[in-house]
Every structure is written in structure tokens, then in C-alpha cells.
Design goal:
With about 300 residues, the chain is of the alpha/beta class. It has one domain: SGNH hydrolase (Rossmann fold). It is built from 9 helices and 9 strands. It has a 5-stranded parallel beta sheet with strand order 2-1-3-6-9. Strands 4-5 form a two-stranded antiparallel ribbon. Strand 7 and strand 8 form a beta hairpin. Helix 4 runs parallel beside helix 5.
Length: about 300
């Protein structure tokens, strides 16, 4: 009886050799996988822009506090401070409406029609918190046309647009201050009260002259808002300053745990802490909104000492 066991070894191994060679040829014919940049050079993950809490109906008999800003105030479920703010207010006396949108700037929030939609909801006696800056230093055109001109004043620049709501048109871009002054004018025309909030803090630390590490605070965008607030006699709510003080008291290593995505976007715990910082900053500014709080939060030691 004929069996393969009586064949020479080379013939018995031939099918396996042919299969291995074919696999190697097939693999070499495949396109190489795209190279990945080193971990430290990869851009940070973009925050989720879905799963945001739905906009609940507002009680028309109550004043409303509108929050208008970017992803630090609203992005993904509970990841923006604006989604936690209502926890500190008596919502039988006031509505809290978070109308922020991730990735937007003072300019793009207007360009995309989001401001017109929010403005239609605002009535006399309402309050509007305006907080921008993280996206306003972006490109004037291109795939993310959201940057505006630096500073305040009436300077303009005409920029052809290829993407977004202005695609195919030439857009006249204004200064950061111009957009914020327009928000203020629109709000006041409705009989509502505008107020500026300083930017949330990013997790970047630098040593002072004595080598002590501190968070970077404010910057040009906050300076413009503070200047406009002073000129127009508006409240400037320095929540970023309160947040920085609290994070520095926590320490650099523990503070880093609150920024799991990148140096700008916090966890849900960090977002809630930012909402607390807004409340404390409202108290420091003696804002009329303090009357709607469930209870006041303890002020930082240095603020309490100054108040005395």
C-alpha cells in the first residue's frame, strides 16, 4: 500500500514550504501601515461633541442664566462646567441654560447661527455669561475657520473661506473685542444682563523667580474682556483666577489627574470643581446671581482676609 510516510522528507514538507512562501509574498505585497508619530508629538484627543445633555424647557416665569462658551463649558456628558452649575442654584427661582458648544469661538458661534438661536431665547431680566478664548487664536480660514483678530477695536481683514457656513464667500473678520462688544449690545437690547467670565485654566505650570511652580493664568483674551467690562461697567467674573488658586493649593501632581484628555479639558470631577470656581467668583464679585444660590461656598482664605 502506498503511503506518504514512505516518501522522502523533502517531498512531505513541500506543501508547507510552498504555503509559507506564498504567505510571505502576499504579506510583502500589502501596503505598509501608516507610521505613527511618537506619543509626545501626537495632537491631543478632541473632546466628545455628542452625548451632551438635552436642552430642557425653560420656565418662562423665571429669570434665566445663559452660559455661552466653548468645550470647557459643554462637551460630552458632564464634561463641561456648565452642566454642573445648576447643582449650586435654586432652580425653583432661576433657570440655568447651557448653550455653549464645543470647538467654538466668539466668531464661529456667531457665524454658525448659534448666537441667533440663543438670542431668540433671551428675555428681559435674564443673565448671560460669556466665556471665550481657547479657540479664538485659531486660523482665520482653512478647515477650522474660527480665529479672530487679536485685541479690541475696529480692525478688519477680508478672508476667502473654503469651509463652514461662509464657504465660497469672502468673510470680513473682526477683532476679538468687536465680537464681544456685539454680544453685549445684543444682550442689552433684550433687557438682559451680560457678564464676562475669564478663561478656564490649562494644565501648564512654570516656575517663578524662586523656582516655585505656578499655573499660567489669563492672557490676552482675558485682558480684552476685562478692559471691555471696565469700560462698559459690566461684571467680570474671574473664575479662572479662582480655579488656578484652588489647583495650586491641590498641587501639580493631583491637579494633573483632573485633565485626563489633554491640558485643556477636564474630567467630570474637574468640571464640577470648575462650576464651584464660577460660584466662588460670583461671590467675590458680589454678583446679583448670588441671591439665587442654594447656599454660598466658602471663599478662599486670601479673599476672606481681603473682604475683612
Amino acid at each position: 500500500m502506498f503511503t506518504t510516510n514512505r516518501l522522502p522528507l523533502v517531498f512531505r514538507l513541500a506543501p508547507m514550504i510552498v504555503l509559507a512562501l506564498a504567505s510571505a509574498v502576499f504579506a510583502s505585497a500589502q501596503p505598509p501601515a501608516p507610521a505613527q508619530p511618537p506619543a509626545g508629538m501626537r495632537p491631543p484627543m478632541s473632546p466628545a461633541e455628542s452625548n451632551t445633555p438635552p436642552d430642557l424647557p425653560l420656565n418662562p416665569k423665571l429669570p434665566t442664566v445663559f452660559i455661552v462658551g466653548d468645550s470647557t463649558a459643554r462637551n460630552g456628558a458632564d464634561l463641561g462646567w456648565g452642566d454642573h452649575l445648576a447643582n449650586y442654584f435654586d432652580t425653583t427661582k432661576v433657570n440655568i441654560a447651557n448653550r455653549s458648544r464645543a470647538g467654538r469661538s466668539a466668531r464661529s458661534y456667531m457665524d454658525e447661527g448659534l448666537w441667533d438661536r440663543t438670542l431668540a431665547e433671551i428675555k428681559a431680566g435674564d443673565y448671560v455669561m460669556l466665556q471665550w478664548g481657547h479657540n479664538d487664536g485659531g486660523d482665520l480660514g482653512g478647515n477650522k475657520p474660527r480665529g479672530d483678530l487679536r485685541g479690541d477695536g475696529d480692525a478688519t481683514q477680508d478672508v476667502p473661506q473654503t469651509f463652514g457656513p461662509m464657504a465660497g464667500k469672502t468673510e470680513t473678520i473682526h477683532t476679538y473685542g468687536w465680537y464681544n462688544r456685539k454680544y453685549v449690545a445684543d444682550i442689552q437690547a433684550k433687557g438682559a444682563t451680560p457678564m464676562f467670565l475669564s478663561m478656564t485654566i490649562i494644565d501648564e505650570w512654570r516656575p517663578d523667580a524662586n523656582g516655585v511652580m505656578h499655573l499660567q493664568r489669563g492672557g490676552g483674551f482675558d485682558d480684552v474682556m476685562k478692559s471691555i467690562a471696565d469700560q462698559l461697567h459690566l461684571q467680570y467674573i474671574d473664575m479662572g483666577g479662582v480655579e488656578a488658586d484652588r489647583l495650586e493649593a491641590t498641587g501639580q501632581e493631583k491637579a494633573k489627574l483632573l485633565f485626563p484628555i489633554d491640558h485643556t479639558h477636564t474630567s467630570a470631577v474637574g468640571a464640577d470643581l470648575n462650576a464651584q470656581s464660577v460660584v466662588i467668583a460670583l461671590e467675590e464679585a458680589n454678583s446679583p446671581l448670588v441671591a439665587y444660590l442654594k447656599e454660598k461656598l466658602p471663599l478662599p482664605a486670601q479673599t476672606s482676609a481681603t473682604a475683612k
